[in-house]
Design a protein that fits this description.
Shape: globular
Number of domains: 1
Oligomer: single chain
Number of helices: 14
Structural class: mainly alpha
Largest sheet: 2 strands, antiparallel
Distance between the termini: 41 Å
Strand order of the largest sheet: 1-4
Amino acid sequence: MNIVDALNAGLSAAIGPVAIAYAISALGLNLQFGYTGLLNFGHVAFMLMGAYGMAITVENGGSLWLGMLVGILAAVTLGLILGIPTLRLRADYLAITTIAAAEVLRLMVRSSWADPLTGSVFGIQGFAGEFFALNPFTSSEVYDIAFISVTGRRLWIIIAGWILVVLLTLLMARVLRSPWGRLIRAIREDEDAVRSLGKNVFARKLQALTIGGALGAVAGMILAIEQQNVTPDSFRPEITFIIFAIVILGGAGTVWGPLVGAVVFQFLFFFLDTMMRDAQASVGWVNAILSTAGAAQVRFILVGVGLILLLVYRPQGLLGNRREAIVGV
């Protein structure tokens, strides 16, 4: 087995556009779950709304920047539609509503009657030209960064994306140190106590849901721009649970947890994937046990086992405080 190739694959994924999108999406989910205690099991729906809001706007003659604004507004609207009827009820109602809404939206977008607007199962392609027109690097040229090599096109996305991640994280840190941030943390701990002090718990929950949804929309746009393609099956329910895993890994209720969790998750996922594929191809007894497809699935098992061990021995995550760990809310 070639561990160097596995390390290169892991490092490339850890700083890549998908890690950037997952970090921003996890930032939004962390606001909802980690700080406010909202069980949003349909976070991928906000990513879908952002990506399709942007792509459809550009497809119909609008600019990419207008499309980004439309995508964010679409996600905020979805948050209001989901939150207004459910946030006054128990937490599990929001979980049921959001996971159902996410799947219903995906099926609607991929349906044949939506084809004139969404492209159905084929999606929408080639809408991010305005972003790549700003690229200061030669798109086809290969650049060496530490131990990995990337094209100029990918390097532009990585640099712009990580700058955005850091700016959003710093902004979130400032917001969470404000009275509003302290209030939503109090809601997570005991919303009845907060309500008894005359605070509008429902309004704060709705704000957290919509702001987190807007961040999810930004993440969906980054995925769409990187792929120059948006399809409904890119937003399947398991994406939400990957984002949950990232939040828990980094530390729910921590400012930098989503960023660290996204980097570590992507590194481990692709490092293990490369190692298992290489082992299946070169190690006799592994080849006898696993097919090529089976070796690819082992990464999910190993990551799952790692998360279980993390929850047992360090439930607060890599950066979290055990006293504030909320796994199981």
